[in-house]
# Entry
Amino acid sequence: ASLYGTVKLLDEDEQARIRGLVINKFRGDMEILRPGLTQLEELTGKPVLGVVPYGHFDIDDEDSLSERLETKSAPALVNIAVVKLPRLSNFTDFSALSRVPGVGVRYADRPAQLEGADLIILPGTKSTIADLRWLRESGMEAALLKAHAAGTPVFGICGGYQMMGRTVSDPENTEGGGSLRGIGLLPVETVFRTAKTTVQTHGTVADTAGVLHGLSGLAVEGYEIHMGETVRDADAQLFVMLKHGEHEVPDGCVTENACGTYLHGVFDAPEAAQRLAQALAERKGVTLEGAAEDPAVYRERQYDLLADTVRRSLDMQRIYDIMEGKA
# Structure
């Protein structure tokens, strides 16, 4: 019905541009559906090019729509809480952590959900200032500070990193203007600018202190996508030295129990998630058994599974003919 309605609501010249229909995420017996496909073709005058079944593929989701954000993982040997900001973005930064055997990753939007976490992560956000206000008003900031004071490390990425500093200022009105006190876990100051940093990059983790010491010297790569510049105190420890073209750019800040960086994908580096999980386990006095698959290899395997399913489900030759103007 939705396909029929979509076609018939279009003007005739727009309908003429539709060369075929595909049913996606179908659950059930294909043979029961088949008479409906014949009827759909007769009513719309468009061929049905295939039916793709509903499948389970572990690929990156749209930030606001992912079912992962609603999943409450059972207690594991190592428990990581990611703060579920209202405008959360790039949450796939933590997928590699969730695949380490013995590690549980949960998304928390209430103060009580931070209890028992061995690591708290502040993720990226589409609006740092608005989500920083939400942290404060919801009680999440107070709970985070209490956990940190009790010894729980806090890690921030991009907007989460900005929040962890002393202040976030917006003199050019990129996020509504004004200035807001930060959480105060890192000796940094952030000022928003109208220019946006968007770059793929790679680098090496510095000789870090505290729970992140095991990441020292690790080669990492990923991307930056953010507004604003964050400046460390002169005597503050950087987290990673990145390459922007031919230039080396110091990034992030790390203390004994807190760390922030602009590098998205930092845990996708081979060994990164495993080393961090192992450090958290040793700190807790537990032992992790087994290792996670290389994130890049795992991701490719999932896309291959998806591609194979699509190829089996669609009339690919007919689609190629349409693309080449033969049909």
Q: What stands out?
A: The chain has a mean pLDDT of 91. The longest helix spans residues 295-313. The domain at 67-281 is CATH 3.40.50.880 (Rossmann fold).
